[in-house]
Amino acid sequence: MLAKVLVLNGPNLNLLGVREPDIYGSLTLDQINDRLKELADQLGVELEFFQSNHEGELVDKIHEAVTGFQGIIINPGAFTHYSLAIRDAISAVGIPCVEIHLSNIHAREEFRKQSVIAPVCIGQISGFGELSYMLGLRALADKIYEPT
Amino acid sequence: MLAKVLVLNGPNLNLLGVREPDIYGSLTLDQINDRLKELADQLGVELEFFQSNHEGELVDKIHEAVTGFQGIIINPGAFTHYSLAIRDAISAVGIPCVEIHLSNIHAREEFRKQSVIAPVCIGQISGFGELSYMLGLRALADKIYEPT
Amino acid sequence: MLAKVLVLNGPNLNLLGVREPDIYGSLTLDQINDRLKELADQLGVELEFFQSNHEGELVDKIHEAVTGFQGIIINPGAFTHYSLAIRDAISAVGIPCVEIHLSNIHAREEFRKQSVIAPVCIGQISGFGELSYMLGLRALADKIYEPT
Amino acid sequence: MLAKVLVLNGPNLNLLGVREPDIYGSLTLDQINDRLKELADQLGVELEFFQSNHEGELVDKIHEAVTGFQGIIINPGAFTHYSLAIRDAISAVGIPCVEIHLSNIHAREEFRKQSVIAPVCIGQISGFGELSYMLGLRALADKIYEPT
Amino acid sequence: MLAKVLVLNGPNLNLLGVREPDIYGSLTLDQINDRLKELADQLGVELEFFQSNHEGELVDKIHEAVTGFQGIIINPGAFTHYSLAIRDAISAVGIPCVEIHLSNIHAREEFRKQSVIAPVCIGQISGFGELSYMLGLRALADKIYEPT
Amino acid sequence: MLAKVLVLNGPNLNLLGVREPDIYGSLTLDQINDRLKELADQLGVELEFFQSNHEGELVDKIHEAVTGFQGIIINPGAFTHYSLAIRDAISAVGIPCVEIHLSNIHAREEFRKQSVIAPVCIGQISGFGELSYMLGLRALADKIYEPT
Amino acid sequence: MLAKVLVLNGPNLNLLGVREPDIYGSLTLDQINDRLKELADQLGVELEFFQSNHEGELVDKIHEAVTGFQGIIINPGAFTHYSLAIRDAISAVGIPCVEIHLSNIHAREEFRKQSVIAPVCIGQISGFGELSYMLGLRALADKIYEPT
Amino acid sequence: MLAKVLVLNGPNLNLLGVREPDIYGSLTLDQINDRLKELADQLGVELEFFQSNHEGELVDKIHEAVTGFQGIIINPGAFTHYSLAIRDAISAVGIPCVEIHLSNIHAREEFRKQSVIAPVCIGQISGFGELSYMLGLRALADKIYEPT
Amino acid sequence: MLAKVLVLNGPNLNLLGVREPDIYGSLTLDQINDRLKELADQLGVELEFFQSNHEGELVDKIHEAVTGFQGIIINPGAFTHYSLAIRDAISAVGIPCVEIHLSNIHAREEFRKQSVIAPVCIGQISGFGELSYMLGLRALADKIYEPT
Amino acid sequence: MLAKVLVLNGPNLNLLGVREPDIYGSLTLDQINDRLKELADQLGVELEFFQSNHEGELVDKIHEAVTGFQGIIINPGAFTHYSLAIRDAISAVGIPCVEIHLSNIHAREEFRKQSVIAPVCIGQISGFGELSYMLGLRALADKIYEPT
Amino acid sequence: MLAKVLVLNGPNLNLLGVREPDIYGSLTLDQINDRLKELADQLGVELEFFQSNHEGELVDKIHEAVTGFQGIIINPGAFTHYSLAIRDAISAVGIPCVEIHLSNIHAREEFRKQSVIAPVCIGQISGFGELSYMLGLRALADKIYEPT
Amino acid sequence: MLAKVLVLNGPNLNLLGVREPDIYGSLTLDQINDRLKELADQLGVELEFFQSNHEGELVDKIHEAVTGFQGIIINPGAFTHYSLAIRDAISAVGIPCVEIHLSNIHAREEFRKQSVIAPVCIGQISGFGELSYMLGLRALADKIYEPT
């Protein structure tokens, strides 16, 4: 059976490709998801997508992932910097998680440099546009299928 | 065609006029909205009102405003001090926004002095009770109708 | 007529007893609620339970408590450390509130030591597992029924 | 008898309209004052104008306002961020005061975000160019003429 | 044999009921102790009381508790915020300890919010007047008698 | 009947005049007390002296002062900077207190500039050698005998 | 020949006795000066008084004091907390200086606890109303006339 | 012609696979490089490897890369947190650079969370063991070969 | 026509050569100015000198320099560390400015290391006694006469 | 005559060897003292031992050491981090003092890294278990007997 | 015999004139050195040049300068902000040193405003491009040849 | 076979005995090493000495010590406060290490009080001149030869 990975996107990421393309690129979230799906097929991974501007919905979704998911890719958007609720959710379900960012958060405003979520993830990938998602998927697939 | 302005109120502002009148005045939010509507008529502006205690709903509403709204008046309530999600939403939709506060936030607890949202607004008006909304509307109307 | 107390649980507490039992104990939230109900019967208090991972729903619920509730027990979970919206809600409704925590938040990560909500509560109880809820209920009952 | 309002401008505001028009607009201080006067006539308020680059002169002027003035509009310029002397003067005379700024100080350098004067004012208006003065005058007139 | 619990009170608590009753209540420390004794009888616990304004005497007493005591209730008073010596004593003797406070320390001056002692206790109870002691005793009894 | 004033000296002040005369002057504590007594006679005040290197003894002494003393002069020595226990004691007994220092603590190491005790005193006198005590006594006598 | 002492008062102290008598007392600055003069006569000291709301005038006056003055009493008002210019002036002229405050600055807002001027004075006296001036004069006279 | 990428490793990375395998994995740096070379062949990229414990040698190497290299992958090791010299070197040569880390630096000591180098890189990849290098290479290749 | 340069000196610099010669040297300000004039002659620059202990006068003077001056040399004295009014004045007039200091401010008290004015100057020269002025003049002349 | 050295141990060190042997070793304080005595005999030094959990008693003891002691070895335990009273005592008596610690305080909690006492000692030895005392004694003996 | 001055340049300064000419100017380091040499001839000073990207080589070079050099001009580049080793080297050799910077470090990123090296230099010159070196040489020559 | 200990000295320690003898003593590093060798002979330990001003060379040397060394004594000089590379090297090789300092770093500038290296050492010895090395050697020998 294929491993299942949940792809979570936080607040304002539904606007991708539509607003501020110079910062976030010209691809819509759907287009990114399509590309991710292609890669997932190659890697033998099944994906489910979820975007929400509501912190609580993201927490709920992470809880639901306990049944049937082997990994989570999350772009928490602005929640990166203050949502301890999402941090605790990831920590509680114990599913391997990769935090990704389109822009290089380490090169932006001071308050964007710190992630309260990254400490409970496997790792963080930041700055490569839509490619960040692909890299995160590769990292997760590698983690899921790696022989111990 | 009339310019349209979205009037957003954040958490606990539904309680206006009912609880703690000594701090926030004795007008209900509906009464304030009625007064705003009167002023809007004079200024030739159409208003839509929305209040929510849910950060995500405010973000959703700001996104929807992309179609058809020329301005936003927001009293983010407690979200003023931590909702980077609302900040990013305003920044993403690019609609002129005015942040207003009933009380003078600069004269209260230390943590209420900083707004994470004001930096992406045109300006901030703080301390004039319900009049803050009226002043905000005037500022916005001026911005919308000003000859360049 | 019996006094009514609202028992609020914040994000991730729906996972109690299921995940990380070594940290949070092996009782589910339902089991804790059952025990609380037993104690409430002894103390002559009626309870209503509500859990949510959504900050906004907790704020809404606190507002609703204005009608008919004499006290609130809240375990705000991760919201303890940043939800000024919940703080303002408690402050606005003016219902006596007790903040409780399963684990000893003063013995964990630095950011867990500070509560933005405790300053508007009667007090805080932290570190006694499910017993924290029972102690909170006793404190509240005592407050409600105490002769002035 | 008409209420009298003192309009105070701090350091460098005498250069308005002459230097850095892209930041502060192309109106001179005199032109802004003329517009303010028009609005004052409508609102039934008499204005007196005073600009100084000297902190002490501003303090002196605030003292003098004790006799005959019902309100103060102040744009403290750079003094906003360190003149405790002006803060104490406003606090001592007890005349309602509104702090205004042409630019949105919350969107500029970190040190411009904090006002040592705002805590002793009724409120602060920031970011609307010359309109900030008009809004401040409206707020003050409303305060002066409001029925208690 | 009955479990023995040491009830420790730090500096200025000997003045309870005599000075500042509006803050600390009108019960004297002896009266609180009497009530505690009643509860202890119900819970099957033997109590010993000790109050001192001397940090060193409190440390000495904690050391002596090694022989024969199964629990400690401590209201460290002002020592809460700086006595690392008491912290180390509790940590060294390894007896389960509950920190209690009459007032809600999280709602007072900034320096009273941090406890250097709580991190080595089971938990902290703060804000319920003399009831804080009772709740602390219940928590301790529960801990001592709980089946593993 | 004469007003009675307690003169308290904290840690290391028993060494006055013996060690480091260049910093603390060449008078012993007894010699200073003699001079104080002379001044007290002139002012119609009775003095009692107490020095201790033990924080707890100073707290005990302050408690005892409740009976029969109208004022306290305290040189808390190093306790100035951390003894919240002494702060709380002064605050609890409610006797007018003057904090004095031989050296100018505002001109020494950074950590000596802050006093945790001064906020609960009438005032602080710092930097005048043994004269600081005399000035403190004058201030206290004035306070005690001043017509309301 | 009599020693001469300059009595300097900073911003807003010209309002003494007129505004906020509950905080600063009901004596005017002239009345305080009269009382100071009486004491000066007793102590064999000649006084000169100067008040200004202008930092620069206070600096100028300190410079002029080089000729003919043996001491300075200064109540820098709000300048206490930021006027490094006054600090450097005192330090440059090398005349013994005593900093005094009517209110107990250590018991007020956090920013009023630090003096940038006190480190270059002999000492600081804070909290005794008009008596602070008298005590400062005594301290200075003692310093001037003390046998070395 | 193939694009050339420089793979830089900072201090202590020569010990990879030999020491602390539980933290850094059991592969030696040579083995990682071999795997990188395989991937590089697939991606049509030529690699050059350089490791040094000397900050200066890394700076020199970055300078040399100006001629002939289209990208840099750097694991700066401990230099991540303080080598402004390496930061300036990357910034000066203007070659696209990816910062990678074997361990998740955001989940370690506080001082390891901040990178002084990441702000001048395209992005940062952290936490995936040797896979971090592969992901970094993919990101760089994508950047180099992407159609504009 | 010769370029004109304004030489501004802030508070206490009128005391140069008279007080504290060990720190600031034995030359008076006039003597320094004479030497500057000699150098100015060589460099083909005309100088105007102005010293004031009043922040406002310095701001006024900077404004006046708009007409006819090509450069400013300023030793802001103590204003270096807090006069945002002077900073804004320099920034507003847009005349090239060099900040100079007699002593090495980087080797003195912590608060003297930061200049709020230097960020709007061409550069800062600190530590070379009267030579600092000469170097500043050379830098300015070079800037004024440099071929673009 | 033999040099005399006072060996001071602060709070909780009387529990050595009895509690937490994995942290502090299995030797009791008496056993350590015996070993120290052996070494003292070799070095020609006479020792006196004193342990107290009371800050005041340690201060008293340091004062007494003025007569007859040439050196002090102190393990201040938890007092290391806040007892300015002990710091001042050591500084006042002027006897050479060595601060020692059993555990490596630089490798423990953040608050244990700073010593308020070390700045007035000759030096600090930390981390070598009971050997720390021996090394401290050697350092002191060397200091006492070294030819100038 | 001519005085000898060592001209030291730190990391990345070998790239001068080649990279980022808009920031650092279009002159190469060799061209700057040639101009310096011309000025040195006029001033009667002999120069030796040394550039390195290695902190250790700069330290070595400073040590060697003990023999035969009367002054050092150093542009420490990025080492300015963290190389305590270079600071200690300059301090140890005791040769007069001038720190210079091409750009105005006080107008750049926050971390570039502080120099750990400047406190042990005579002074600092910052912001004048290649002219900074010339001014530094003049300052040094003046220092070396000044009559005492 | 004898245990081998590596004695490492960081930047500027090659100048020992030659420069600043009042701070660092009059012994050269060679003379200290000779004395260390004598002690090593007594303790049955073989020594190897290495000094470098290059951080990278110290890291290299620590790596080489993996083969054949049972202990390291390191005086990191200025690297104490920032060389995370040396910290990681010591941590990686896992050889017991003692950090020593000639001067009492806890009594010097604020930035010298913190060691980034000490947390990965057995302990730290600071303040005893050349004796610090001897004490460090004793501590290490004791550690190496102690029966487990």
Summarize the structure in words.
The structure is a homododecamer. A five-stranded parallel β-sheet of chain A has the order 2-1-3-4-5, with helices on both faces. In chain A, strand 3, helix 4 and strand 4 (about 95-100) form a beta-alpha-beta unit. The radius of gyration of chain A is 14 Å and the shape is globular. With about 150 residues, chain A is α/β, with parallel strands linked by helices. The two termini of chain A are about 20 Å apart. Chain A has five helices and five strands; from the N terminus they run E-H-H-E-H-E-H-E-E-H. The interface between A and H is medium-sized, with 25 and 25 residues.
SSE map:
12 copies of one chain form a homododecamer.
Chain A lengths: L2 E7 L11 H4 L4 H15 L1 E7 L3 H10 L6 E5 L8 H10 L3 E5 L21 E4 L4 H15 L3
Largest interface: A-H, 25 and 25 residues
Q: Which structural category fits the helices and strands of chain A?
A: alpha/beta
Oligomeric state as shown = homododecamer
Strand content of chain A: 15-25%
Instruction: Specify Rg of chain A, calculated over alpha carbons.
Output: 14 Å
Total strand count of chain A, please? 5
N-to-C SSE series of chain A? EHHEHEHEEH
Biggest sheet details of chain A: 5 strands, parallel
How far from one another are the termini of chain A? 19 Å
Helical content of chain A stands at 25-40%
Inertia-based shape of chain A: globular
Features:
homododecamer, 148 residues, 5 helices, 19% strand
